[in-house]
Amino acid sequence: QVELVESGGGLVQPGESLTLSCRASHSGLTLAYYSAAWFRQAPGKEREGISCIDHNGDKSFSVEFAQDRFTISRDNSKNTVSLQMNNLQPNDTAVYFCVSGTGAKCRGYGPLYYPRQFDFDIWGQGTQVTVSS
User: Fold this and answer.
1) Which tens digit of pLDDT belongs to each residue from 2-46?
2) Which pLDDT belongs to residue 2?
3) Helix (H, G, I), strand (E, B) or coil at 117
4) Is-contact 72 34, C-beta < 8 A?
5) Which of the residues 101, 106, 112, 128 has an alpha carbon 20 to 30 A from that of 119?
6) Rounded Cα–Cα distance for residues 127 and 42 (Å)
7) In 3D, which of 1, 17, 101 has the Cα closest to residue 52?
8) Contacts (Cβ under 8 Å, ≥6 apart) of 106
């Protein structure tokens, strides 16, 4: 079974940065072939999309709250997708999920991302990010 594995989460103080990374756990999914995205879910809240990147990294999109602080990128030579997060705040505390799949799609217009969970059929287990002083 193909899985996506996230890493890089942890506990940070407000204003600090983190970089999350995602890789496919088995050779059955060549992540480099497909669009990928990051979602998050905070305690007691619905899951929300953050950023999406197309298969070759030419196009990326982010939702409004992530425009100035979060950057999605990929290294197809390493089959990984990353999310650089700067100036983290307590309301960024959440479990962060990497998503992809053979039918993965980034719905974007200009720089903005319009996430739809059903665009992705492979989800990682998530990595916890906690922002607290």
Assistant:
1) 689 999 999 999 999 999 999 987 766 788 889 999 999 999 999
2) 62
3) helix
4) no
5) 128
6) 12
7) 101
8) 35, 37, 52, 53, 54, 59, 60, 61, 113, 119
Tokens, residue 117? 């969970």
Assess contact for 42 and 65: CB atoms under 8 A. no
Q: Tokens for 73?
A: 């990128």
Phi, psi of 35 (to 5 degrees): -65, 155
Tokens of 23: 């890789």
Query: Which among 96, 126, 124 has a CA at the least distance from the CA of 26?
Result: 124
Question: Tokens 């890089």 label which residue?
Answer: 8
